[in-house]
Amino acid sequence: MDSTTQQNSTLVQQSTNAAFSLEDQAGRLRELVAAFQIDEAVVKKATEYKPAMALSSAARQAEF
Fold first, then answer.
1. pLDDT band, residue 45 (cuts 50/70/90)
2. Which residues form the domain of 13?
3. Which residue, 27, 42, 45, 64, is the most exposed by fewest CB within 10 angstroms?
């Protein structure tokens, strides 16, 4: 039982460290992306884009 508790504690600590690292990386990525200027028309077109046909669940899970 103590071994399992210790393993769980280690996993929680590793997950916490990974979350902080990911948050830091996301912040740096936001800073880098902020350097790009995008025309509002391009943004509007990209946000309005809707694919003509969505893949079925079976197609998404198919292995190629």
1. confident
2. 2-61
3. 64
**Contacts of the segment 51-60: beta carbons below 8 A, 24+ positions apart:** none
Domain tally, the chain:
1
Joined tokens for residue 53: 């046909």
**1 compared with 29, residue with greater pLDDT:** 29
Residues in CB range of 7: below 8 A, 6 or more apart:
none
Q: Environment class of residue 20 by beta-carbon count within 10 Å: exposed (0-12), middle (13-18) or buried (19+)?
A: exposed
